[in-house]
Amino acid sequence: MLLRIAQALTADELRQVRGLLETADWADGRVTAGDQSAGVKNNRQLPEESAAAQQARHIVSVALARNPMFVTGALPRSVYPPLFNRYGGTANDFGDHIDNAVRTHAATARHVRTDIACTLFLSDPAGYDGGELVINDTYGEQRLKFEAGDLVMYPGTSVHRVEPVTRGERLACFFWIESMVRRDDQRRLLYDLDMAILALRQRGDSAETVKLTGCYHNLLRMWADV
Ligand code: NI
Q1: Stretch among 32-36, 88-92, 216-220 having the lowest mean pLDDT
Q2: What's 204's domain CATH number?
Q3: Which tens digit of pLDDT belongs to each residue from 178-209?
Q4: CA of 28 to the centre of ligand 1 (A)
Q5: 29 and 117 share a domain?
Q6: Domain match, 175 and 79 both
């Protein structure tokens, strides 16, 4: 399931995060790449423990935690602390790859299974050329270039790349989620059911909406690992 969450950051949060990133010191993006993806990765990344990364990460984490779409779409069990990257100039693309199945957070030695990959777009799309996030999955190729502040979640199992940025600069935040429900098809079913119940409940609760809500929770109980 590919899910877009429009305006996951408010305009004010976006300004704060961009301000932090614009004055930060950046490093070669290959520091967090595996052997195979290091060969195709050519971007810059904010060092994980830098002050700018920590402050920006905090703003993003607070915004995500209050977002019901994020919570219902991902059913997060564990979120890898958000990272930040920058594409432009000569460090401007990241070829086809699949993310490592398990990321270990160096500072805490905590493991996160990458069920879901997330990209939070931070740059105005009019400010750069290229830089599309291209995701290849069973439904074919998706080419994404969303508004600043928008988030996309997609299955960690997908081959993906970032096209070369040929003008301007593309700033983004990226991270992974280990979901309480590891299977994408089960998460999709729960998400659809949840959205349908929400729409029905707008018309008022009934014995049927109570029963459907029970079905949602009983499926979640069947599939969730917490
Ligand atoms: Ni990737």
Answers
A1: 32-36
A2: 4.10.860
A3: 999 999 999 999 999 999 999 999 999 999 99
A4: 15
A5: yes
A6: yes
CA of 98 to the centre of ligand 1 (A): 6
41 near 30, Cβ under 8 Å?
A: yes
217 C-beta neighbours (distance < 10 Å), count: 12
Q: Rounded distance, CA 32 to CA 51, Å?
A: 18
Quote the ligand 1 centre to 161 CA distance (angstroms): 7
C-alpha 5 to ligand 1 mean position (Å) = 19
Q: Which residues pair with 102 in a beta bridge?
A: 113
Residue 201 Cα to ligand 1 midpoint, Å, equals 38
Residues 161 and 71 in one domain: yes
Query: 192 C-alpha to center of ligand 1: Å?
Result: 26
**127 vs 169: CA distance, rounded Å:** 7
User: Residue 13 corresponds to which tokens in the numbers above?
Assistant: 């949060």
Q: Do 156 and 189 sit in the same domain of this protein?
A: no
- Of the listed ranges 85-89, 137-141, 142-146, the one predicted with least confidence: 137-141
Residue found by looking up tokens 């409940």 in the block: 201
Together in a domain, 105 and 133 = yes
For ligand 1, the distance from its centroid to the CA atom of residue 168, given in whole angstroms, is 21
Q: CA-to-CA distance for 53 and 82, rounded, in angstroms?
A: 8
| pLDDT of amino acid 192 | 97
CA distance readout (Å), 101 to 34, 90, 156: 11, 29, 8
